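Summary for the steering committee. One of the milestones for this cycle was to obtain a three-dimensional model of the protein with MRU bound, which we needed before selecting residues for the alanine scan. The sequence and ligand used are listed below.
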Amino acid sequence: VTRSTDVFSSTALRWSRSKDPFLWILDQRLLPQSETWMPVRSTEDMVEAIQTLKVRGAPLIGVAAALSLAQTALRGTRADVLVQEASRLRAARPTAVNLMNALDRMVRFVRTNPDPEAIAGEALAIAWEDVDLCAKMAEIGASLISEGDGVLTHCNAGALATAGVGTALGVIARAHGLGRRIHVFVDETRPLLQGGRLTAWEMGKLNVPYTLIADVMAASVMAQGKIQKIFVGCDRVATNGDFANKIGTYAVAVLARHHGIPFYVVGPHTTIDSHCGSGKDIPIEQRDPQEVRGAQGAFGSVTWAPAQAPVYNPSFDVTPASLVTGWVMDTGLFDQDAVRNGALRMGHSSAAHPR
Ligand code: MRU
């Protein structure tokens, strides 16, 4: 398959060589009330977009940052400056290792081949590869979903979080596409509502039957026997199988264990950090207290807590490997035994992340 070097278009990202700026992102802070595309003109723009979650999801921020660096290269920026820009992009968010992995790959490339066209080609290769990784995970994971299953997911691990069909949501969409009658329970995902705003939007677009629940309702829905499988994405996977994902994922895994429901994590090998032996090594992003004191978005802005209420706001939590039924990767489906025997140590990650 020949893949264009002039155009790349996914649900949340567009690259077009016929226009300058080349790179556009769908502003995810405004979804679903408004589908607004915004240009990314510089490293500053991209860092700001990543930090404010205009562009988000572990694989997508890696792809978007690589394309942003390529855009800078095509404007004639010197290789040594590109390396500095890459380190600014790399530091934009700390937990999703795809960002570090994509930029480390770009820097290795820039150092050996500073030709701007070639650099752009490498960034586009990262984007197209993510499309393929998603398709592979969707195929592998869909075989785990049976006719009539109720499936619960947390946060947004869909096309909005990747360059392709998504990770956990790609699996769910593929099962639906294969004609299996399924029903998806979507955790709202406080504080930034990636489930209520983004996953609900994606399920609607794909015509997948779904029910939105507040996070606190998951236990009750499980107790009622409505959930047969759980699929979530991941932002960084340690080699022992522990993984970080959106805050609240760990709670879902604990509930799954109590109710005897299979719990699967879905992610590409680009989300493995070979430098993290366990979840204890994964840096967890702490975010603005205001996100917990109220809510802000295209729907408006409201603060319900006292203005100075002390807040704890980790953006991610770590789910221990012991609570995971299976790891759905592009390289295969791994169970507890496979992971204990080092299945995830084969990852191609080379991230040397800051601690
Ligand atoms: O803070 P976000 O919205 O970037 O967090 C995203 C998640 O936690 C997703 O579940 C994860 O990146 C997997 S997406 C394919």
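Key point for the committee: The pocket of MRU is lined by residues 53, 56-59, 96, 155, 157, 161-162, 166-167, 194, 233-235, 245-246, 315 (CB under 6 Å).
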